[in-house]
């Protein structure tokens, strides 16, 4: 199956989206510069072709850009191509998609929703490999005790806090006042 990608500007930098005929296969948050963002996409999808966004993907781009400007965005309309992903990851990503704008849950809470009570670490590992940044809002998942937890995108925890702050999540400001704590 052919994979295409496009770079696009957002309030936090140049992002990328990759898609197939079945839907979105990846979203890349901005790296240090455009070349690194493109390089990361091509590392994940080495045979991808840069292309103009078709209308359906242009709608996805617009929704992602709006979200990063602080506009509550419902991304449930986005078709994801998860055919190459393990079934457990699919369940975790579908459960994470239900976390609403400005809200959060814990890894353990998400594990329970995904039908894997007690598998918080496995949920964290699945989210660390999340190819659908923002569409699968892994930034809304925090550690037990409301600690911020990890974030595998460029910028790490700083990017996670930035995304939460964009959504007006009051806990992002609290985390900035108390390092490591997320209330």
Main sheet strand line-up: 3-2-1-4
CATH level-1 class of the largest domain: Mainly Alpha
Strand content: 5-15%
Structural class: alpha/beta
Number of helices: 7
Task: Describe the overall structure.
- The chain is an alpha/beta fold and 183 residues long.
- Helix content is 39%, strand content 15%.
- The chain is built from 7 helices and 6 strands.
- The chain has helices at residues 34-44, 55-68, 87-97, 107-113, 120-128, 156-166, 170-177; strands spanning 4-10, 13-20, 23-28, 49-50, 105-106, 141-142.
- Strands 3-2-1-4 form a 4-stranded mixed β-sheet.
- A hairpin with a 2-residue loop joins β1 and β2.
- The longest helix is centred in the middle third of the chain and has 14 residues, at 55-68.
- The relative contact order is 0.13.
Short descriptors:
39% helix, two-stranded parallel sheet, disordered C terminus, Arc Repressor Mutant, subunit A, globular, 2 domains, alpha/beta, 7 helices, Double Stranded RNA Binding Domain, 183 residues, 4-stranded mixed beta sheet
Summarize this entry quickly.
The chain has 183 residues and is of the alpha/beta class. The chain has helices at residues 34-44, 55-68, 87-97, 107-113, 120-128, 156-166, 170-177, and strands at 4-10, 13-20, 23-28, 49-50, 105-106, 141-142.
